[in-house]
Each structure stands twice: as structure tokens, then as C-alpha cells.
């Protein structure tokens, strides 16, 4: 098992589907996982500390778990079968460990909101992991000038679109943000 961090959400150019990107702590492996548009927006907002006007499902679940005194102890990307990833959320309820089957996107969104660590089974990394070369990185570094200003404006528009529950517009804005972030890499 390898501990990984959620480092970004980006659109896969060939399919135009969002991918959530995980990176191991040693900076050697990326793991892209295909997810849906709503989940991509939720993960993106959690990564950039953007508060939606109304809570997404993972925030509702976090609130319920908190209210019941249940702690999310970890998320595990446990399997990859026929190009479908599987995940498990581990919970601690009064000293009892409970494993809950989950889609990876929901589990990752919950992990980001609870601070729970994310792990990936070795066999999943062997099947789908991508070695990191020195020239590949999806984190945004060194944003300057006009692009930085444009990104700030687009993030504000994204927040407003989500507030109005205009999710298609939000997905389009998220894609534009990611395109600009890709330009500065």
C-alpha cells in the first residue's frame, strides 16, 4: 500500500473527461482516475479551499459522520477491474472499524474534507500508475501577471456558477482554469 495525495483535477484531452490526479509522497508516481463532472468540481473546490454556497453530498456525509462521532480514518483505492477503480472508506465508530465501499471520486472528496490519508494498493499502482519524469508535474507553480489575474477571475466566476447551481457552466469554467494552469507548467 502506498500513501498518496490528491494534487489536481484535469480534463483528459482525448475524451474530455475529468481526471483526478494522485501523487505518491516520494514524488515518483502519478495515478490518474477518471471521474464525473460534479465530483471533479467538488474535488477541485476542496483542493482550492473554495466554499460552495450549498453543501455537496460529501460535505453532507462529513457533517453526518461528525454529528455521530464517527471519524474517517483513511481512504483506500483498493482495486482496478476492467478500467473501473474501486475504493473503500475506513471509519472509526467508538473504536470499531467499519469499511464502506465507495466510488473513488466520492471517497477522495470526503478525504479532502476530513483530512483523512489516501492509500492505493500496490497492484493498482502497478496497473495504472504513471512514473513521474522531471518534466511532468500537474501542480501549478510560478503563476505570474496576466494569467494569474485571469485565473483569479475565473475562480470567482466558478464560485458564482456553483452558487447559482449552473453546473455545466461551472464545468466549463473549471476546464478553462485547468487549460490556463496547464499553459504555465
Give a topology summary.
Layout: E1 2-11, E2 18-24, E3 29-34, H1 37-47, H2 57-67, E4 70-81, E5 84-93, E6 96-102, H3 104-114, E7 118-120, H4 122-128, E8 130-131, H5 145-163, H6 167-183
Parallel strand pairs: 4-7
Antiparallel strand pairs: 1-2, 1-7, 2-3, 3-8, 4-5, 5-6
Helix pairs in contact: 1-3, 1-6, 2-3, 5-6
Give a quick summary of the entry:
The protein is of the alpha+beta class.
Radius of gyration: 17 Å
Task: Give the tally of structural domains.
Answer: 1
Low-confidence stretches: 134-145
CATH class: Alpha Beta
Order of helices and strands: EEEHHEEEHEHEHH
Contiguous helical run count: 6
Q: What would you say the CATH architecture is?
A: Roll
Shape: globular
Main beta-sheet annotation: 8 strands, mixed
Helix content: 40-55%
Average pLDDT number: 82
CATH topology: Bifunctional nuclease domain
Number of strands: 8
CATH superfamily heading = Bifunctional nuclease domain
What percentage of amino acids are in beta strands? 25-35%
N/C terminus separation: 30 Å
Q: Helices and strands: which structural class?
A: alpha+beta
Biggest sheet strand order reads 6-5-4-7-1-2-3-8
Question: How does this structure look, described?
Answer:
- With 185 residues, this protein is of the alpha+beta class.
- It has a single domain, classed as Bifunctional nuclease domain.
- 41% of the residues lie in helices and 31% in strands.
- The chain contains six helices and eight strands; from the N terminus they run βββααβββαβαβαα.
- Strands 6-5-4-7-1-2-3-8 form an eight-stranded mixed sheet.
- Helix 5 (145-163) runs antiparallel to helix 6 (167-183).
- The longest helix is centred in the C-terminal third of the chain and has 19 residues, at 145-163.
- It is globular, with a radius of gyration of 17 Å.
Amino acid at each position: 500500500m502506498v500513501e498518496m495525495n490528491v494534487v489536481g483535477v484535469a480534463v483528459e484531452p482525448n475524451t474530455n473527461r475529468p481526471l483526478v490526479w494522485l501523487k505518491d509522497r516520494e514524488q515518483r508516481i502519478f495515478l490518474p482516475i477518471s471521474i464525473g463532472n460534479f465530483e471533479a468540481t467538488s474535488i477541485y473546490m476542496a483542493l482550492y479551499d473554495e466554499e460552495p454556497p450549498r453543501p455537496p453530498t460529501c460535505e453532507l456525509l462529513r457533517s453526518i459522520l461528525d454529528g455521530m462521532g464517527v471519524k474517517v480514518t483513511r481512504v483506500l483505492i483498493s482495486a482496478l477491474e476492467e478500467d473501473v477503480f474501486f475504493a473503500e472508506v475506513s471509519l472509526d465508530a467508538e473504536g470499531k472499524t467499519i469499511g464502506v465501499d465507495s466510488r473513488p471520486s466520492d471517497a477522495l472528496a470526503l478525504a479532502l474534507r476530513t483530512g483523512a490519508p489516501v492509500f492505493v494498493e500496490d497492484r493498482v499502482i502497478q496497473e495504472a500508475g504513471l512514473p513521474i519524469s522531471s518534466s511532468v508535474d500537474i501542480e501549478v507553480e510560478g503563476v505570474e501577471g496576466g494569467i494569474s489575474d485571469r485565473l483569479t477571475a475565473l475562480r470567482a466566476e466558478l464560485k458564482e456558477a456553483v452558487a447559482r447551481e449552473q453546473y455545466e457552466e461551472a464545468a466549463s469554467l473549471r476546464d478553462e482554469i485547468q487549460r490556463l494552469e496547464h499553459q504555465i507548467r
